[in-house]
Design goal:
seven-stranded antiparallel beta sheet, two-stranded antiparallel sheet
Length: 220
């Protein structure tokens, strides 16, 4: 990565990344070109990303980008199978086996320490790591490979933009919430004050028609 003048924050982090589109067309899967790209993806993933890896074997790191706020348990079965099949196919040992176990968890659950080699991770909460058995499925892998696109995104800038959007969306949500509460308070006050106004009018007795007539007669 290139660093800014203060040598504390990177000005850009460009990595070689392969992108895939799920068979349903609604989700993006991506993985680094090699173990060095994996390091960048580990460092600059997003909270809405889900990480996949073949259990106990060397493999690519495959990520699934979810819509913000989507629970990991709500990943469609077809999409989950896409991710598991892709990560199995990109394991030197795993691709030769008829079946392997694949583990997956949120990117934010990944833990990286200085003593780890490239591509190695542990977990902040191991109990939140899921494990699933996946069979070899060449038709799925072939379908995904047809959507494969190679890009060189600036991971640092992408993450900065994501975080800015999160902040702006939260500000907009708070403004809308404050406005809603203000409108509710004004409506509640209007309802409270309405009986007082009605009572004020009830206390003023208007002249009866006969009284008006008598007064008119007395005038002449």
């Amino acid at each position: 990565p290139c660093y800014a003048d203060d040598n504390t924050l990177p000005a850009s982090v460009v990595a070689m990344v392969y992108y895939f589109t799920s068979r349903c067309g609604k989700y993006t899967l991506y993985m680094g070109k090699d173990k060095y790209e994996n390091e960048e993806l580990i460092a600059y993933g997003l909270p809405c990303d889900v990480w996949f890896h073949v259990d106990d074997l060397s493999s690519a790191h495959v990520y699934l980008r979810l819509v913000e706020g989507t629970p990991i348990g709500d990943i469609p079965e077809e999409v989950l199978l896409d991710c598991c099949s892709l990560v199995k196919a990109n394991s030197i040992a795993g691709c030769k086996k008829s079946s392997v176990y694949v583990i997956y968890t949120y990117w934010k659950n990944l833990k990286k320490t200085a003593d780890m080699v490239e591509g190695q991770v542990s977990y902040h909460r191991p109990q939140n790591v899921r494990r699933v058995l996946v069979e070899k499925n060449n038709p799925i892998v072939n379908a995904l490979n047809k959507t494969k696109v190679w890009r060189e995104p600036d991971l640092y800038m992408d993450k900065q933009e994501y975080e800015r959007n999160i902040i702006e969306n939260e500000k907009a949500r708070r403004r809308a919430e404050a406005k809603s509460k203000r409108v509710e308070a004004e409506e509640a006050k209007r309802i409270r004050d309405a009986p007082i106004l009605d009572k004020a009018f009830d206390g003023e007795k208007l002249p009866q028609r006969t009284e008006v007539a008598d007064t008119f007669d007395d005038f002449f």
